[in-house]
Give the backbone structure.
Amino acid sequence: MALNDDIAFLARQPLLSLMDRDALRLVAFAAESRTLRAGDVLFRRGEGSDGAFLVVSGAVALSREDDGRPAEEIAGPGALIGELALFAALERPATAIAREPTQVMKLSRSVMRRVLAESPDSAAALAHAIEERLTGFTGELASVGMSLRAIDWR
């Protein structure tokens, strides 16, 4: 894809769409394109992460178990795999295997950090969106906790 196509593709991602065009241009320029064959392993559960993968075409099966069970999730074109790995070093929670010929863009955490350091408005927008997500998640956990406590009291 041409650089402008890559920028447009990145801008369709909910979180990345909050970044300004110049920041997206830098991310797109630094993105590494990979082509996978069916059966190629993108990463394994438990490996350290150094960024995220954006599926451009094809499909990637994500499985939390390495026991041959069917994949729990299929990531198709437009899916951002490992979004939080753009901001923090995490262990991969699943194994990712290409189900068919697949093209991905690797977005590195080190590049994202540099871009956000140079684009404070983009950094603030992303921080706000992540804060809203965490607040919602915390509320959901509190609700589950209340439900579990109600079951215990019966």
